[in-house]
Amino acid sequence: MFYAHLTISDVYLRFKEEFKWHLWSPIGSKKLGVKPESLALVQYLNVLRPACINIISNEETLFLLTEQITHHNDFFSAIKSVNGFFIFCDDTATKLKHFVSHLQAWSIPYLMTEESSAQIQPILTTFIHIHLAPQVIQHGTFLEVFGKGVLLTGESGVGKSLAALYCLERQHCLIADDAPSFKRVGTQIFGECPKELLQRLEIRQIGIIDVSHSFGSLAFAREHRLDLVIQINADTAAQATERVIALNPETVNIWGIQIPKIQLAFNPNIAILIEQAIRFLLTKQT
């Protein structure tokens, strides 16, 4: 088990298109030293806490423009000790040039956007709690098929990556090959791809495939909830039982959450069987 770090670059890149914000940072990837169990990772500037993302909205702007705060050395000393970064919402940075100049002087990074704080704060809170949840690496290949997260497991060389390639040819998405990381958030398990394996799929006798280059940008997803585990077998025992597996799926316990699990024997039509397993899962959930 390991804990992820969060940097301002992570936040910037994750929501760059959605929030259309601008980044100022002298170091670009300053780590936010938060603990995963922290209650308030994203906060407004009513109380200064270390290791948090501090949001500056219109209300905070009025506060920062008051005569008492503008010349309050103790307040700025507290700002200087914050091991986090700031987000200026509602285009407030243009009104707070004095405050911004202090952040730059102290090498404290910040983001600027015209989006409202009411929109950004809940989205960021959810993202950060997911990002910083404790993680474990699971050997296998993680896919998104019909909007469901599917983890392919099995012995090395059984055909997990080749099965993923067949699924990609049928316009499904790869999340991570070989070593996806999983985390529990509430009552759900989420999986994502380690940065060093992004968009990579390794096929025996061929080598590493760049998924986006070969299948387009929509063939890759950054993360997804885990909905189904499919164990791929090479032996004939799975062939004998796969006729009845869909009627009586197993479950596997992952961090106290029961995830449906089935077994399939590898064959050239395994992508079709994976799709059918997802259809069966969707039928049971309706």
UniProtKB/TrEMBL annotation:
One of its GO terms (biological process) is regulation of carbohydrate metabolic process. It is an enzyme of class 2 (transferase). Gene3D superfamilies: P-loop containing nucleotide triphosphate hydrolases. Residues 131-284 form the HPr kinase/phosphorylase C-terminal domain. Its EC number is 2.7.11.-. Keywords: Kinase, Transferase. InterPro entries: Hpr_kin/Pase_C (IPR011104), P-loop_NTPase (IPR027417). The keyword Aminoacyl-tRNA synthetase does not apply. PANTHER family: HPR KINASE_PHOSPHORYLASE, PROTEIN YJDM-RELATED. This is HPr kinase/phosphorylase. It comes from Candidatus Berkiella cookevillensis.
